[in-house]
Specification:
single chain; mainly alpha; about 50% helix
């Protein structure tokens, strides 16, 4: 579960997330996040022993942005196009 913001870091929250944190944010399983890590699709660092991975918050945001870009490319839409049509 994502931790509450640390008073020393402000409201930005933790810099690094566990696989469980990422799974909760993406509403998926830890196994699915581990598969993303192992495939190289989700950039990570390994700390300590086996299976000790951490994902920097900015890397998770980059991953999400890439997935939106891929979805836009598949459907031929873009967020800016949608915003223009809503005006």
């Amino acid at each position: 579960m994502p931790r509450e913001p640390d008073a020393t870091r402000g409201s930005a929250g933790p810099r690094f997330l566990t696989l469980a944190d990422v799974a909760e944010i993406l509403s998926t399983s830890v196994a699915q996040v581990r598969a993303l890590v192992h495939s190289g699709e989700l950039r990570h660092i390994q700390i300590g022993g086996r299976q000790q991975y951490r994902i920097e918050t900015v890397e998770l945001e980059n991953y999400i942005a890439r997935k939106y870009a891929e979805a836009d490319a598949r459907t031929g839409t873009h967020a800016a196009d949608e915003a223009r049509t809503q005006r």
